[in-house]
Automatic annotation (TrEMBL):
InterPro entries documented for this protein: Beta_cellobiohydrolase (IPR016288), Beta_cellobiohydrolase_sf (IPR036434), Glyco_hydro_6_CS (IPR001524)
Enzyme Commission no: 3.2.1.-
Similarity field: Belongs to the glycosyl hydrolase family 6.
Protein name: Glucanase
SUPFAM superfamilies linked to this entry: Glycosyl hydrolases family 6, cellulases (SSF51989)
Recorded GO MF terms: hydrolase activity
Organism field: Streptomyces fuscus
Keywords: Carbohydrate metabolism, Cellulose degradation, Disulfide bond, Glycosidase, Hydrolase, Polysaccharide degradation, Signal
Residues in the signal sequence: 1-30
Active site: D150
PANTHER family, A to Z: 1,4-BETA-D-GLUCAN CELLOBIOHYDROLASE C-RELATED (PTHR34876:SF4), PTHR34876
First-tier enzyme category under EC: hydrolase
Length: 318
């Protein structure tokens, strides 16, 4: 039940965008980014799009292009210097009047219990500088940001000291998006329907500053059906007092979950990205076709690497 992504390295220089500090004077009210744009941004350089471009004569290319690469898929940012890369990506979307979906995934010791997507920033201070730069790079342009998948479900193998550090970093992240990215809807990740009880997740979200942002995300990189995810998210929302909003990752939940989290067989693409659907939005946060790790139907494909075989199986539901 973990999020498994290998985030691309080699991004542009951090120094190109200054690190911001938090002050009360910087606080701003979030606008609705969906009303400031004309639909979701489709990343022309996503991993499925890049694979199609590199394999135009492959018999699978047409299906992957029409079913996956042409869809709006979140772009993940992690280890590496991301200030200029974030600014460039959001700027590209803005130039097309489209709404980009981004994922911040760089907590120290991320995927602590799953282990397939370990890494992240080297210290608390490094993380805070990184996430501050991220938010400042988005600035006042419309965006949707999912903050740190796995972060609040992954407590089972962590010490209380590490948990407290993580809650502090996440609270800082929510504040910096609140104050530096006024036209962003940010969602703190809230795990999935099969991982942590709704009451426990609500307590963790509250401790991590969910009240500072739009709300929370569920089912990121997992397979639980939209119905199951709605039930779980609404229970979390109720435990939070009923005001937090949420988004659902529907990228691979068309056939629901079979209880496995790492490249299980028989899964299928879910509802394409849209606003509404019982949530703020149904999004493709995980890139369909990217491996969860060396496991399941892709025992030789590392986490985050695109596999056309996985992609076709998701298209066909096999």
């Amino acid at each position: 039940m973990k999020t498994l992504h290998r985030v691309a390295a080699g991004l542009a220089c951090l120094a190109a965008v200054p690190v911001w500090t938090l002050t009360s004077a910087d606080s701003a009210s979030a606008a609705d980014p969906t009303t400031l744009t004309s639909g979701f941004y489709v990343n022309p350089n996503s991993s499925p799009a890049a694979w199609v471009a590199a394999h135009p004569t492959d018999s699978r290319a047409g299906s992957i292009q029409s079913n996956i690469a042409s869809r709006p898929i979140a772009r993940w940012f992690g280890t590496g210097s991301t200030g200029s890369a974030v600014a460039s990506y959001v700027g590209q979307a803005d130039s097309h009047d489209k709404l980009p979906v981004l994922v911040a995934y760089n907590l120290p010791g991320r995927d602590a219990c799953g282990g397939e997507s370990g890494g992240g920033a080297g210290s608390v201070a490094e993380y805070k500088a990184w996430i501050s730069t991220f938010a400042a790079a988005v600035a006042d342009r419309p965006a949707v940001v999912v903050i740190e998948p796995d972060a609040l479900g992954d407590f089972g193998c962590m010490s209380q000291t590490k948990i407290n550090e993580r809650l502090d970093m996440l609270t800082y992240a929510t504040r910096v998006f609140q104050q530096k990215a006024p036209n962003t809807w940010a969602y703190l990740d809230g795990g999935n329907a099969g991982w942590t009880s709704a009451a426990t997740m609500a307590d963790r979200l509250a401790a991590a500053g969910v009240a500072n942002v739009r709300g929370f995300s569920v089912n990121v990189s997992n397979y639980y059906s939209t119905g199951a995810s709605l039930t779980y998210a609404n229970a979390v929302k109720a435990d939070l007092g009923g005001t937090a909003r949420f988004v659902i990752d529907t990228s691979r939940n068309g056939n629901g979950s079979n209880g496995e989290w790492c490249n299980p067989p028989g899964r299928k693409l879910g509802t394409p990205p849209q606003t509404g659907g019982g949530a703020d939005m149904l999004l493709w946060v995980k890139t369909p076709g990217n491996s969860d790790g060396k496991c399941g139907i892709a025992p030789t494909v590392a986490a985050g690497v695109f596999s056309p075989d996985i992609a076709v199986r998701l298209i066909n539901g096999t």
